[in-house]
Amino acid sequence: QAYQLIFEYLEAFYNTKRIHSHCNYMSPNEFEQMYERTNTEAELLAG
C-alpha cells in the first residue's frame, strides 16, 4: 500500500507541478497550458 501511495503522489503532484529544465523551467502543467495557448493563437492567425 505504501508503494501505491508514493506512486500516486509522484504521478499526481510531484511530476506535474515541479519545474523541469526540458520544459523551459516550467512545470509540465504550465508548459502544456502555454503550448495550448500558442497553438490556439497560431490557428486563429492562420485563419
Q: Please, could you describe this protein's structure?
A:
This protein is an all-alpha fold. It has one domain (2-46). It contains 2 helices and no strands. The protein has helices spanning 2-17, 28-46. The longest helix has 19 residues, at 28-46.
List keywords for this structure.
elongated, 47 residues, mainly alpha
What is the fold's blueprint, element by element?
Layout: H1 2-17, H2 28-46
Task: Give a quick rundown of the structure.
The protein has helices at 2-17, 28-46. The chain has 47 residues and is an all-alpha fold.
Instruction: State the order of secondary-structure elements, H for helix, E for strand.
Output: HH
Q: What amount of the residues lies in strands?
A: under 5%
Structural class: mainly alpha
Radius of gyration: 15 Å
- Give average pLDDT, whole number: 86
What is the number of helices? 2
How many angstroms does the end-to-end distance come to? 52 Å
**Overall number of strands:** 0
Sketch the major β-sheet. none
Low-confidence stretches: none
Q: Based on the structure, what is the oligomeric state of the protein chains?
A: single chain
Shape annotation: elongated
- Number of folding domains? 1
State the helicity in percent bands.
Answer: over 70%
